[in-house]
Amino acid sequence: MTYTIGMISSYVGLNPCPIDWLWQQAKHPFGNWDNIQIQANAKDPDFLLMYNFHDFPELPEKHWNPLKNKRHHDRYLQQQIQLKARLQNVSPSRTISLWREPPLAEVVQKNIDYYNQAKPYAAYISGPDDASPNPDYMPAIWYLTNSFEELNQLPPPIKQKPCSWITSGIDRTANHRDRLSFLKLIHNSETNCDFYGRGLPDWAKAGSINNKWYGMAPYYYNLAIENYADNEWYVSEKLWDSLLSWCLPIYYGGSAADKLLPPGSFLRLPSMDEKGLRYIQEVTATPDAWYEAQDAIAEARQIILHKLNLVNWLSDYVKNFK
What we know:
Helices cover about 35% and strands about 15% of the residues. It is α/β, with parallel strands linked by helices.
């Protein structure tokens, strides 16, 4: 039997969600993977994925004057009706809430609020931090537009340049600002590293890129710098994109990657400072480390595609559902 998986999200680009969301991560056409089919906007799906969803009804505050309280209570009831329609007639027992945000100091309480708000609507709630009802790694998604079949069979592409870094100019947290400071340090050192991304400072000489493949595949190495590196759960698409592009990632992040991927499939950036800069310069001076890591990269790619893949995760969840 094939079970249909619907989805709602608060991501702007996934709201409303395209019907083919995740189809490129599925083994077979139309989002089919073993016992499931991904149909984000399906009518009456068998299961529903709430993917980084936080548009829950706002409860009226207590002790307000009756007029204000009634107005906000009416809005709350309207929001409940709207949410019920988005839930696509799926019961909470078959609804999954996956939160993708790291527990940065600036947002940790907000994350906890979202976990609590999801409880009436989803039986399974998970996120990459200890405050989550079910702390766990984030199932893998990637931002390469290549098909699953292509990524699965593709040999290493021709490598032409030493190193790239695809990042952004976001600076709303201390961690983001530390990353931008490191970017400037690398840039000012004239290290042979190309930068790509949206919203980067003019001095970075960067350009935005729609398919990350083109900013990674021609490079031996890729800087994969997480926004958060302080727990055992958080690892994001930055690492998956790099490996699926046959790069050897120079990775800055927590311990999750060590548990999920084979030894030698990525390198550890020791720090985002002068020491880290020297490490990058030493490694990228030759392609030797990339050649030595090819077997480990190949193994890691298969793990990402077939095991860590969000579509496979959903298939396993349905198989184990009771």
